[in-house]
Batch of 3 targets.
Target 1
Amino acid sequence: MVEVKFQGVGGQGVVMASEILARTYFEEGWYPQCFSVFGGERRGAPVGAFLRISHEKIYLKCDIERPDHLILFDESFLDENATARHLMPGGIVLLNTGERHRSERCRPYTLAEIDALEISKRNGVATLVNTAMLGAYVRVTGGVSLDRLLKVIENTVPAAVEENLAAAKEAFEEVVVV
């Protein structure tokens, strides 16, 4: 089983990203389970989403405490000590950042960086960075194909479909593993 945690703020498309990724895995033969956590405020308030995927049916009904992958839609959520403590050994952190953190320090996880905000703006979807983050995630993890992700985006996003497809493709090419 693979567990993924998404963390961001309202307006970035965190919940929709978890749903798109769950559907992508489902269409590639996996069993997904996704759920989200957010308060009454939406835009700007912290939002979390969780995804479990497995080749077998999932019967767990609890929170994800130690994910295999952590997708941070906002750089303010990166706390290297907390990340290392809560992420499974060998896990991947995908960080949306405009600055590169090319730290030479040894980490117990892999850090991948993408400027999803800039990519999203260039492609006309403003601060909605979900499809760019998913394009980068697919490249870094290799868990599902980019083609499948693009088909799901095409059939799922309610507006600006071509723009979202372009953002996902561009992020797939630009993500950097530090």
Target 2
Amino acid sequence: MARKLRFRALVTRVTCAIFVLAACVPAPPVDDPVIARRASPTPSASPAAPSTEAGARPDTAPAPFTARLAVVSASARVLKPEGSATELGQAQSINLELNDGIEVVRPEGGQAQSYSLLHFPDVLNVELFGGTRVFLTGIRQGEGGSPEITLDLDDGHLFVHPNEERDTRVTVRVPYATIRTLTNGAEFDVCRDPLLTCVVVRRGVVEVVAQNRREIVKAGEASVVMRDQPPSPAICAPAPTFSVWEERYRHAAGAPALQEE
């Protein structure tokens, strides 16, 4: 019940931000032409444009699920593959399209955390924080119509919260590792900087693959991947300490990064 309430609370945050936007600010345009960053469809009400990346396969089918970015505090920008950017302020939101990028503006000094939500209605919420840069590079229906979503994380922190009532598979890719959920409703946090990637699993089971090595990480465990090295064996992540850190990081820009924990 607590997990369902947490997911619904995240949905409520997104919905409130969207309602404020609808009442006060016109949504920025989202019909710019799209060129694939890494080749995979993202949600849109209109068909996706073909990829122009070498070796990429065009995909013109409409995305099966919608995705929306809502800025809860501070600001963020949506990056189009052809180079344009759309700035979003607090309480603004926008639909995302094929291979759009999200850059959450890093707050200055001791200000409150810059906080945005990537929202897939009834499917998945992803919390994004200041300094995070992520691209939506895959969204499709798997067997039985279940959602399969892929995010490419260049830098920063993201907290992944699938709806435990949906059979959703989530993949987070960094330049030297891939993190993938293995169980329904697996909930996990990922941090990345140029030197390392860390993963903490809150619920379910996740696999981390790097340098041809596969590491299984279960609820209450963590894994670290250094650049050009395989993932380290899963270690125990003290759940109470981590929960306190997570809440601090949600609200305070000056809270230590997950790597330090």
Target 3
Amino acid sequence: LESAVEDAIGRRNAWRAGLFTRLPELEIWRGLAPPATADDLTRLLDAPGKALLQFVVDEHDLLVMLAIAPADPDSAVALTANVVTIERQDLAERIGRALDRTALAGVEAWRKGSAELFGLLPDEIVDGIEGAASIIVVPDDVLWRVPIEAMPIGPEYLADHAVVTYASSLSTILRAPATHSNDAAASVVVVHSPQLPSALLDKLKATTPSWLIRPGEAAGAEALRIEEAARADKDDVVEALAVHGGADATSARLKEIGDAAALHLAAPFRVNTASPLFSPILLTPVSQEIDGERPAPREAEFEIRELFNLERVAPTVMLSDPAALSKRDAAAALAPVAWAWRAPGATTVILRRWGGDEEIARDVMAAFYEGLRAGRSAAEALHEARRAVRRTDAGSTPAAWAGWLILIGKQPEFNQ
């Protein structure tokens, strides 16, 4: 029997090797490609000022690793690793206190409230990220909730010195499948304010009572703000803006993105921590007429797993519902969600960690799309949008600007 099993395994491995030789991307999609190693860091950290900050949370320890690009191209990447002894429960409690609404709502309150959390970072790690111009953060477990960009650095924030993005792993960036080319650098598709059946709303109240559905008026105002910002620019930019709201905010619109540069979804969305690929985006249900009869509308829940069936979607996707990560540990379940968006071509996914002042949030979104139209990358556009808001009196607190999480799926591009 052992001999037969060994022979069967050998034949299967040979068949699979032949399959991956013919279809090399399939090995990546199945997560079977060799994981990235420290030797691959030179490809990611290919210019001075770039850094990778990664965490591993254990029950009794916190591992913090930092890789910094060398000033000399012929030198090796500088690697630093530290183990911090702390119970996972203690770490979670520190995060909870730091992210308290009262702490987030004030500049000084945040500095005090987050001090015991960021104080865990060793000095050499802090010194390393202080000098970085762009940082990719790979969190773990409960640390997905923490806005690293809001870390106080002297009288400022880390975001005042560096462009901060997030990734689920080094391998997802360096072993990313190829994406389709996209020349429509300024086009944006907005899907907002779906008309949800009362039966669906009743179902949600019974099954997920903690999910607060944002009023359609808020999503509509958001779409209008994005449109107004586009009209403030050149006339030809407006032609590259498609807005679908109300009865037109259907799943069919997700299938008709074409060569748009960005998809903005102002529709109810919440990550399902137990089964992330079943996380629903709520859209207007579609009724299809068959043989002259109109059946009941199809369920108005577009689940993340259905993204694998789409041929193409915009490379940048923003989901603006503040309830997206409201479920406990939702942020830690983002890896499969981002991977699903990656299937039809989205390499950057932006979500909100929390709600807050909707007017300020609209300012961030409008400035973000202005940055995209100006030719900035998604990471740079969001960085500049939040910086502009942070310079105002109303937007200076972390609650106002630090709630946006930008998750990348390939090596980021920077113009500076």
